[in-house]
């Protein structure tokens, strides 16, 4: 599966469960760790966990094997390592604290068409 398809699959899975403020950051040339970061917000710990689990379920259904995941237990944040795509799902306050968008400022960003409210 190509990177752009994997990004779209993650966005679709997040939108399915009403993730907020979905942002895609193109970090190619900025880091060797990954090519794209998808950042989204959940409204509660349960919502964050459900969003992350839905992404995992959808990518596994497409025979993509995640390299790892972190933070699913707590619900404040979750990180899903899909290789060339890393998905961050966080509660709003946690997202504001870590401010990944500012951290990767200068990298190309786009917002998903849906999920912004």
TrEMBL record:
InterPro entries: Iojap/RsfS/C7orf30, NT_sf. It holds the Pfam family RsfS. Its main location: cytoplasm. Signal peptide: none annotated. Coiled coil: none annotated. The keyword Transferase does not apply. Keywords: Cytoplasm, Repressor, Translation regulation. SUPFAM superfamilies: Nucleotidyltransferase. One of its GO terms (molecular function) is ribosomal large subunit binding. It is found in: Cytoplasm. One of its GO terms (cellular component) is cytoplasm. One of its GO terms (biological process) is negative regulation of ribosome biogenesis. NCBIfam families: rsfS_iojap_ybeB. Interacts with ribosomal protein uL14 (rplN). Functions as a ribosomal silencing factor. Interacts with ribosomal protein uL14 (rplN), blocking formation of intersubunit bridge B8. Prevents association of the 30S and 50S ribosomal subunits and the formation of functional ribosomes, thus repressing translation. Belongs to the Iojap/RsfS family. This is Ribosomal silencing factor RsfS. It comes from Azotobacter vinelandii (strain DJ / ATCC BAA-1303).
């Amino acid at each position: 599966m190509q990177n752009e398809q994997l990004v779209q699959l993650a966005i679709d899975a997040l939108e399915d469960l009403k993730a907020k403020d979905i942002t895609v950051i193109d970090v190619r040339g900025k880091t060797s760790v990954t090519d794209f970061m998808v950042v989204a917000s959940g409204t509660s710990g349960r919502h964050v966990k459900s969003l992350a689990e839905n992404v995992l379920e959808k990518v596994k259904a497409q025979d993509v094997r995640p390299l790892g995941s972190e933070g699913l237990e707590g619900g404040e944040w979750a990180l899903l390592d899909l290789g060339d795509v890393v998905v961050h799902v966080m509660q709003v306050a946690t997202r504001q604290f870590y401010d990944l968008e500012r951290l990767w400022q200068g990298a190309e960003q786009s917002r998903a068409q849906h999920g912004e409210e």
